Amino acid sequence: MTERKQTLFTAVATLTCVSLIVGFLSIWLLYRAAFVETRDWMQMIVLGQARLIETVAQCDGPHRSGAFPEVSCDERINQLMLNNRWQEGFGRTGEFLLGRQDGDRITFLMKPRFQIEHGGDIADDYTRFGSQLDEPMRLALSDRTGWTIGRDYRGKEVLAAYAPAKSMNMGLVAKKDLEELRAPYFRAAAVAGGVVLSMIVLGCIVTIRISAPILRRAADSEAQLRAVVETAVDGIISIDGQGHICSFSRGAERMFGYARDETLGRNVNMLMPSPSRDEHDSYLRNCVWESAGPVLMRGRDVLGRHKDGSEFPVEITISMTMIGGERMFIGVLRDVTERRRAEHEIKLANEELRAVNEELNQFVYTASHDLKSPLVTILGFAGHLKSEASRGDVNRLQDYADRVEAAARRMRTNIDDLLELSRIGRVMNDPVPVDVASVVNDVLQEHAAQLEELDVEVIVQSDIPHAMGDRARVVQVFDNLMTNAIRYGCKCDQPRIEIGSDLVEDEARFFVRDNGEGIAPQHHETIFGLFQKLTDRNGSTGVGLAIVRRIAEVHGGRAWVESTPGEGAAFWVALPACDCPFGPQPCKESLAEIC
Amino acid sequence: MSRPKIVLLVEDDPDHAELAMITLHDNEIPNWVYHVNCGEEAMSFLRREKPHYDKPRPDIVLLDLKLPRMDGHEVLAAVKGDEDLRLIPVVVLSTSASERDKARAYALNANSYLVKPADFDDLRSLMASLKLYWLRCNQSATLPSA
C-alpha cells in the first residue's frame, strides 16, 4: 500500500514539474519575443526621431545665420516636442525623452511624463550627470546608440533605447518600465501555474476515486491468489524463459529448505540433482521453441535436490503461460517420498504375501496328499476287515488291524509334523547371539548312543562362530541334520560326520557333512519339500529338512545341500552373523546373561 | 478264456499296494499283478533288466505319482518316451486330485487318471470298473514284430 502511495506521489510530482517547466518555458519565450519586439520598436523610434532632429538641424544650419536666426532649430524642436508630449502609443509607462547636458546637469527638453502625471520637480539627484540615475540619457549624451536595461531618472528599472542628436548636442531616449513589460507574463505564469496545479489536483482526485476500487479489487484478487499459492501444501514455482525463478511458494520453501529470497532470480536448476541439473537449460530452450500446449508435463516423477544436498522424489506438473509477452513456466511439485515409501512397502508386502500364498498352496497340496494317503489305507483295510469278519474268515484280520493302526499312527505323526512346521513361523523368540559350538555339543551328546553304536567318526571344527537366532530353533536345526546324517549318511564301512562353519560377510554358514551315498543333483531342491523322502525307510516322515529350511528362512537365512552321488552330502544352513562372531569377553558375558 | 492279463503295479506305500492287489484279485478276470515300489524298479521291470530279465511285458501299468526319487510323472515320461514301451496303457492311480497333477499326467500321455477313493465301497467299485474296462474291454496293441 505504501509502495502504491509512493508511486502515486512520484507520478504527481513528475507531472507537476513537467507541466510547470513547460508552462514557464513557453511564457518566458513569449516574453523574450515581446521584449525583443519592444526593444527594436523603441530603437526604431529613437533612431527615427534622432535622424529627424539631425535633418531639421542640418536644414536649419544655413538659416541660423540667415534672415531668421531665432526661428530656427529650437523652434522646430519645440514643435517636435510638442507633438510628442502626450506620448501616444507608449503604453502606461513608456515615454520618449529628449535631453541636453548643461554642465553636470541633464536638462529634459520635454517635461517627463512622470512629472506631468504626478507633478512636482525632478530631484536634483535625478538629473545630475554624475549620478547613477538616468543611465539611458547619459549613454545617449555620451554619443552612443543602442539599448539598455537600467535605471531612469526616477530610479526605476526600464528597457530603453537611446541615440544622440549630435548636431543639437541632445540625447534621445525611448523607454518603458520593465515592470509593465513583464506584468502580463507574470500574470499569465501565475494563472497558468494555478490552472496546472488545480488540474493536477483534480486529476489526482478523480484518478484516485476511479482507480481506488479497481485497485482494491485487484489487490483483493491478488491476495486471494497469493493465499491459494502460499497455503498450498504442494510447492509452486514459476520461472521465466531463461530458467530464472520468479516465484517460490511456501510449500516449495518447506520442500526444498530454501527461503524465498535465496531462490528468486537464480536458475531453477539449483533445485535439481545431476544430471538433470546440467541438461535443464538446453531442455528449457528446446521447450520454449517447441511448446505444444498449456500443460507441458503432467504428473511426471523427477528428483528434487534439498538445500542440504539430499535428493527426494517429486511429482511435477508444468504448465506454460504468457505474461507480458514473456513465456513463463509454472511448476506444481509434490513431495512423494512418503508415497513412494508406502508403495515400496506395499510391493514388498505383496511379494511376501504372494510367496506365502504359493507356500500355502504347496503346503495344502502336500498335506492333503500325505494326510489322505493313510486315510485310504485305514478305510480300505477297515472295509476288508469288516467284510472278512462277516464271512468268518479270520486269517488276515490281525494283519489288517495292524495296518490300520500303523496308518493311523503315521497320520498322527504327519499331523504333529505339520503343526510343528506351522509353529516355527508363528512362535519365535527374538534373535540373540547363540553359541553354535555349544549347540553342536548338546546335539552330539543327544545322539551319542547311536553314534557309538554305528561307530561313527565325528569331527567338529574348532572355531565355530556365534550366530543370531533363537537357540531352541538352532538346536532343532542341528538335531534334524544330525538325525538325517545318521539315518542316511552312515551306511558305509567307515562312517564319518563332519561339522564345521564358514563366515562370509554377514552370514554365518554351518554344515553337517557325511560320507554316505550322496544325493543326485535333481533331488537337491525336492528333499527340502514337505514329506519328501528319497527312501521309504521306516522312521522317516520326510519333514526334517522342511523344518530345517523353514527355521533358516524365519531367521532370514537359508538352507541347501552340496552333494555328489557316492561322495557323501553336506547340508548347509546360513544364519545372520553375530556382531562378535567369536565371542569376545563382553559378548560372552551378555550371552551368559541371556542363556 | 484267454491268458491272464499282466498288471504292473508301481506303488511305494505297501498298504496301498496290498489294497490294490486284494481288489484286483478276481476269478472272472484272471490277472497277475507284479508289484514294484519305486520308479527306477518299474523302469528296469519294463525294460527287463536284471533282476527282471525274465519278467513278462505287462498289459497295463498302474502308476502311483508320489514315489521316492524318480516320481510317477518321471516314470510316465520315460515310458511314453520309449519307442518300445509307449504302447503299454498307463493308468495313473493317485491320492492327488490336483488339477496340476492331472494336467501334467495327461500332457505326458497318460491313458487314464484315477483318484484313489478313501471309502472302501468306492474303492471296490472303482477297481471292479478298472478290471472290467482295462483288463477285459480295452484292446491293447503291440508293435508289429520286425
Describe this protein's structure.
The complex is a heterodimer of chains A (595) and B (146). Chain A is an alpha+beta fold and 595 residues long. Chain A is built from 16 helices and 17 strands. Chain A has helices at residues 2-64, 73-84, 113-118, 124-127, 135-141, 178-231, 250-256, 260-263, 276-289, 337-391, 397-426, 436-446, 448-453, 471-488, 544-554, 585-594, and strands at residues 95-102, 105-108, 146-151, 157-165, 170-177, 235-240, 245-248, 295-305, 311-323, 326-335, 432-435, 457-460, 466-469, 496-504, 507-514, 558-563, 569-576. In chain A, the strands form four sheets. Chain A has a five-stranded antiparallel β-sheet with strand order 2-1-5-4-3, sandwiched between helices. A five-stranded antiparallel β-sheet of chain A has the order 7-6-10-9-8. In chain A, strand 8 (295-305) and strand 9 form a beta hairpin. With 146 residues, chain B is of the alpha/beta class. Chain B has helices spanning 14-24, 39-46, 72-80, 99-107, 120-137; strands at residues 5-10, 31-36, 60-63, 90-94, 112-115. In chain B, strand 1 (5-10), helix 1 (14-24) and strand 2 (31-36) form a beta-alpha-beta unit. Chain B is globular. The mean pLDDT of chain B is 88. Chain A binds chain B through residues 365, 368-369, 372-373, 375-377, 379-384, 386, 403, 406-407, 520, 523, 533-536, and chain B through 12-13, 15-16, 18-19, 22, 37-38, 66, 68-69, 95-96, 98, 100, 116-121, 123-124.
